[in-house]
Design goal:
The complex is a heterodimer.
Chain A: H1 2-29, H2 39-42, H3 47-51, H4 59-71, H5 84-115, H6 117-130, H7 139-146, H8 149-174, H9 178-186, H10 191-229, H11 234-243, H12 247-275
Chain B: H1 27-33, H2 45-61, H3 65-75, H4 77-87, H5 90-99, E1 107-112, H6 119-123, H7 129-132, E2 136-141, H8 145-153, E3 159-163, H9 166-172, E4 181-186, E5 189-190, E6 192-197, E7 213-216, H10 222-233, E8 243-246, H11 249-257, E9 263-267, H12 270-276, E10 280-285, E11 296-301, H13 302-307, H14 309-326, H15 332-339, H16 349-357, E12 359-361, E13 367-369, E14 374-375, H17 382-394, H18 404-411, H19 414-423, E15 436-438, E16 441-443, H20 448-453
Parallel strand pairs in B: 1-2, 1-3, 7-8, 7-9
Antiparallel strand pairs in B: 3-11, 4-11, 5-14, 6-9, 6-10, 12-13, 15-16
The chains are: A mainly alpha, B alpha/beta.
């Protein structure tokens, strides 16, 4: 039963994909109205103007270009033109660093907030105000104070991934069942040991859910941040190709961003699965 | 006009009496020729330096022009050169001169915005002008004017491509903390345009533009001032009758296609790109508003000059050299190809060629030719800075009294660049102020306040 369900779902997925590609192909195949122009003039104009070619590339254009990129993902033509593999590497490294910093800050702090209702109440107003700020709003301030665009991008990743982790950790820690803590207390377990052998395993699934939300947000934000600061990374690639109005390359970048985002999400999902326990 | 002075020409004066550049017999003659002065590259570096050194030697030996002429006439130029070379090793002196001042810092970063205004900064990398002057420069593409400003202020970049009014604004602390900035060289003159959406092809009279939306690249830009000037001369108040939006150049074409804006006064290749993609047409070149207007500059902080004077000098020499190369029409095709790849401007070669060669499609089915559509002349005229200050005052960006001359002279390094250019064997103009006319209205750099007050349409202060 489940096997047949999976098969049917797969068939439906493929059918949807093919339908999408087909509609895309049909929609971009057509040529628009073309004004008559002298050959001398036409030589100076782009294909959209001379042949009425659609501004949107078709799936075949995108496929061909994608193949071109996949064939040589690590080329380096100087500081402003690097292969997609290198650009993705830069983005992942930035996300990784900012995210790691966020983990280092958010999890201990979340523990503290979850375990002490005094600290919880004291920090609450700050968290409530800082949490809804769009991470990119920090960018000008970061550039101005940190005085380094690479570090600013990492800071923006840090600030956007810290909140979901912090709140989930605090919530997970506070929601550990009172019976378990009471049992630990009866057995005269010390605070440190209680935190590590009772609360941490109990709260781990909630904490990891927060971490998973964070990595998704971090990956969303890095693209925008890199479009702002430029230099390297997949966001810069999108900006650079947008500059050249190359929609084909922008679509390829979109596909790759989605693919890498899915990978990151799956990795965290696997971790979450590992620490989840049946009750 | 040759910039390569021949010190062995009996009819030429070497002393600085009469005319400062030494090419004209009187100051009047020089002034009338000044607007056409261009820096043209000498045959070779060595030859150029040799000439400079020889000039200096001759000047020392014959402080009196009449005596020098008599000497040259009697023995002939080649004999004179040979004779002098015997007891003064001109070749050795030339080498010593060329090596003068090794750069303190060889690996430099220079930021640029991907538009054709940055041509000298960009092309100096692939065509080897930085390397020629002993530098290893990485040119870094940057996302927008605010970012390039911040990255230069942060010292991530040693120097950068900036809009001509930006270093003035930064030095005055407009829109940023006041940091003393300088302009050793202008990048390009002309080279902008007013592009309108195709649907406005019958609305060529600006008086019909009431209510339209226009994009400009930045508040502190020549584009802003030129568009405001053009609209105001046509009776529209740019603050109330139309909407002006600051939009990064790459977004302009997309916005024009989406009909979010009706047109823009933008840097090239953006204008030509809109035409190339069939989205807009060229209403007019910025050259028709003010022929010879500056647009972008090569800018560095005073701190950089103070800490690495030799690097700064080498960098300026490389830029001046590249600018001189770019000013030659026959080099433009080669340059277009060199700066088109994704590492630099990232645009179709045809588009860049149309901008640089001046033979372009106008977007309405015609092919036009204007060899001076964009041109390159590095000399940072201080009168340009004064004009920009008058417009900042006119549109309320600066409030209160302005010491036009002091600011212009602090930011636009005409004297230093003139010295460098002379050392390179080029002939800089004799003065750093010149009068010019914008849409038929003459600007006198000595009376900026009167100029501001002469405009009827301006922001009430």
């Amino acid at each position: 039963m489940t096997a047949s369900l999976r098969l049917r779902a797969a068939i439906l997925s493929v059918a949807l994909f093919l339908a999408f590609i087909g509609i895309w192909h049909l929609a971009t195949r057509g040529t628009g109205a073309v004004a008559t122009m002298s050959p001398e003039y036409a030589r100076l104009m782009g294909l959209t103007a001379t042949q009425g070619k659609s501004v949107m590339p078709g799936p075949l254009d995108v496929g061909a270009k994608l193949w071109e990129h996949l064939k040589r993902p690590f080329y380096d033509n100087g500081p402003n033109d690097k292969g997609l593999g290198i650009q993705l590497g830069y983005s992942i490294a930035r996300v990784g660093l900012g995210y790691l910093l966020a983990v280092i800050v958010a999890i201990p702090l979340g523990f503290l907030i979850g375990m002490s209702s005094l600290i919880n109440k004291a920090l609450d107003p700050f968290i409530q105000i800082l949490k809804p700020i769009s991470p990119l709003a920090w960018m000008p301030l970061a550039l101005y104070t940190i005085k380094d665009s690479g570090l600013s991008a990492i800071f923006v990743i840090f600030i956007c991934s810290v909140w979901p982790m912090l709140l989930n950790t605090a919530f997970g820690v506070a929601a550990v069942r009172k019976e378990w803590i009471n049992v630990a207390r009866t057995l005269e377990v010390g605070t440190i040991r209680r935190a590590f052998s009772v609360i941490l395993p109990a709260a781990a699934p909630t904490i990891l859910t927060g971490m998973r939300i964070s990595i998704d947000i971090a990956w969303l934000v890095i693209v925008a941040a890199e479009m702002l600061v430029g230099g390297t990374g997949i966001g810069y690639f999108v900006w650079n190709e947008w500059n050249n109005l190359s929609i084909t390359n922008v679509i390829i970048a979109i596909l790759l961003i989605g693919f890498v985002g899915m990978l990151l999400d799956q990795i965290l999902a696997r971790f979450t699965h590992m620490v989840t326990f049946p009750e | 006009m040759s910039t390569f002075d021949d010190p062995f020409d009996a009819d030429r004066k070497l002393s600085r009496t009469g005319c400062v550049c030494g090419q004209h017999r009187s100051a009047e003659e020089h002034d009338s020729a000044a607007p056409s002065l261009r820096c043209e590259p000498a045959p070779s570096e060595e030859k150029r330096y040799e000439s400079v050194v020889a000039s200096a030697v001759m000047r020392e030996m014959f402080p009196n022009d009449i005596a020098r002429r008599a000497f040259l006439k009697s023995v002939g130029a080649s004999t004179a050169l040979a004779a002098i070379s015997q007891f003064f090793p001109i070749k050795t002196a030339t080498e010593a001169f060329a090596d003068a001042g090794a750069p303190e810092k060889k690996d430099l970063k220079v930021g640029f915005i991907p538009i054709t205004c940055a041509t000298p900064i960009i092309m100096a990398a692939p065509l080897g002008f930085y390397a020629k002057h002993g530098l290893n420069v990485e040119v870094v593409k940057t996302a927008g004017w605010a970012v390039i400003r911040d990255k230069t202020l942060n010292k991530e970049y040693d120097a950068a491509h900036m809009l001509a009014p930006m270093p003035i604004a930064i030095s005055l602390g407009l829109g940023a903390n006041a940091v003393p900035f300088t302009v050793p060289a202008i990048e390009n003159i002309n080279g902008q345009g007013i592009t309108l959406a195709i649907k406005h092809k019958d609305k060529r009279d600006p008086k019909d533009w009431k209510g339209m939306k226009f994009a400009i690249p930045f508040d502190y830009s020549m584009h802003n001032y030129l568009l405001r000037y053009y609209l105001a001369e046509n009776g529209l108040d740019p603050d109330t009758d139309v909407q002006l939006r600051s939009v990064p150049p790459p977004e302009m074409v997309a916005n024009l296609r989406a009909e979010n804006i009706d047109g823009f006064l933008a840097p090239d290749n953006i204008c030509q790109r809109a035409i190339y993609d069939g989205v807009g047409f060229m209403h007019m070149l910025s050259k028709e508003i003010w022929d010879g207007h500056p647009c972008c500059t090569f800018a560095a902080s005073r701190e950089f000059i103070a800490t690495s004077p030799n690097s700064f000098a080498a960098l300026t020499r490389a830029i001046v050299d590249a600018t001189a190369y770019a000013s030659k029409a026959e080099n433009r095709k080669e340059i277009a190809e060199a700066i088109a790849p994704a590492n630099y401007i990232n645009a179709p070669v045809t588009v860049l060629e149309q901008v640089l060669t001046g033979t372009y499609a106008d977007g309405l089915g015609g092919v036009k030719t204007d060899a001076k559509r964009v041109d390159f002349d590095p000399f940072p005229w201080q009168s340009f800075a004064v004009w920009m200050l008058t417009q900042m005052k006119r549109w309320g960006q600066i409030k209160g009294d302005v010491d036009y001359k002091a600011v212009a002279e602090q930011v636009y390094l005409a004297t230093d660049t003139a010295k460098l250019m002379t050392e390179m064997g080029l002939t800089p103009p004799a003065t750093s102020y010149k009068s010019f006319s914008v849409m038929g209205r003459t600007f006198d750099p000595t009376k900026p306040e009167d100029y501001v007050n002469s405009f009827k349409i301006r922001k009430a202060s």
